[in-house]
Amino acid sequence: MVNLPQQLSLSVNLNDDATFENFYAPAHTHNAMVVRGLRDQLDGSGESFIYLWGAPGCGLTHLLQAACHQAQEMGLSVQYLPLRDLVGYAPDDLFTGLEMVDLVCLDCLPTIAGRADWELAIFHLYNRLRDAGKCLLVAAEHNPRELALSLEDLRSRLQWGLTYQVHSLTDEDKQQALQMRARARGLELGDDVAQYIIQRLPRDTNELFWQLARLDHASLAEQRKLTIPFVKKVLAI
């Protein structure tokens, strides 16, 4: 990470669970192709600029942070910037020197749409990263053509490189993803319990994984298996 103002340190921490291995993308699916594209970007065999977009909860933040973790394991320098948390700061201060970073990830891009200072700063950042041969990974809820941008030159830049739509998971996929996360935590989550959780909680995967973490902590504390009565008690559902 580059040196950002001290008050931003909590905003740019990476989630340890956000890895490519933890992202549910079975082989031969569209999302598996997206993951391959991100891996290729990092090893230099793919595009240096990638734009990801998709509906809330589809895993955009997870993928950006997973790319950062993978890059760090490869010995590359990274900077993850959640624009939703940083929009109150001066972009020129935040972006100074980022052209020296191997991978820059800009999350929540629509947050800055219509803000002339931010749009211009990202436009110049893109050009500096390109000239320096570095990588940029951007995430938004809309494709570049649908963003409410004022700077058309920035919209044009965002359409260079590769654009991937990240597909939302079906309920069956979410069950498999939840069980995969449970196994990674050393938990046994049966089909009946997983279905019970998905049917009674918001379908957003971030919410599901957060509630799984709650169950993990409660299971450890009480030395209990994940049964429907136990889940019902802990999550009050």
UniProtKB/TrEMBL annotation:
Keywords: DNA replication. It comes from Cellvibrio fibrivorans. It comes from the Bacteria. It holds the Pfam family Bac_DnaA. Residues 171-235 form the Hda lid domain. Belongs to the DnaA family. Coiled coil: none annotated. This is DnaA family protein. The keyword Disulfide bond does not apply. Residues 14-164 form the Chromosomal replication initiator protein DnaA ATPAse domain. The keyword Metal-binding does not apply.
